[in-house]
Design a protein that fits this description.
binds iron/sulfur cluster; globular; 187 residues
């Protein structure tokens, strides 16, 4: 259902079409060259859903993690779980990307970057992140209003609309839906 994307396009599409939860993980990975397990699962399965093939996924994660833990440790400790996400190890389940409902229900600890920023960020961090995404001040207030009422997916939908300048009638219920709706508009 989703088109393929290659490693060289990731930065571009991350900026234009990733929902905030995935942009945050992506930026942290680029910054720290590391993500904890919850973040690797949430971002890894999303990227799989976006159309990143296994070989590209391994290259992408390895390029980051080797800068932190070295290539050898990456191959030993981290490559397995990426192949596992693609159903190439263990029970060979073809794992599906997390829905918003699942991500919102997660309970990230200190040092974790997974979860839904509308639910899990402090108000200040969320405001700053929205303004970095290019959401104007008026729209930020509308988003914060939804957040205060715990309507996290509606907050994400308003963000989508502010960034793309169009309404998203269906509402956002899955990060991969956010991505594909965005790509449809931008293409
Ligand atoms: Fe991600 Fe869904 Fe939260 Fe949007 S509402 S940031 S897509 S989990």
């Amino acid at each position: 259902e989703f088109a393929e994307i290659s490693v060289k396009d990731i930065d571009l599409v991350a900026k234009s079409s990733f929902p905030l939860c995935m942009r945050h993980l992506f930026e942290k990975l680029r910054e720290d060259h590391h993500l904890k397990h919850g973040g690797r699962m949430q971002l890894g399965l999303f990227l799989k859903g976006v159309g990143l093939k296994l070989d590209d996924a391994l290259a992408f994660w390895k390029a980051e993690f080797s800068q932190k833990v070295g290539a050898e440790r990456f191959d030993k400790e981290y490559a397995y779980s990426i192949r596992h996400n693609y159903g190439r190890e263990g029970k060979r389940t073809d794992y599906t990307p997390y829905s918003c409902q699942k991500i919102i229900s997660l309970t990230p600890s200190v040092g974790d970057h997974h979860g839904c920023p509308y639910r899990h960020f402090s108000e200040d961090n969320l405001r700053a992140a929205l303004s970095r995404m290019g959401v104007n001040n008026g729209a930020v207030e509308d988003v914060m209003d939804k957040v205060r009422n715990r309507h996290y997916q509606l907050a994400c939908t308003l963000t989508f609309e502010a960034i793309h300048g169009l309404s998203c009638d269906a509402g956002i219920n899955h990060p991969n839906q956010y991505f594909s709706d965005s790509q449809k508009i931008l293409k």
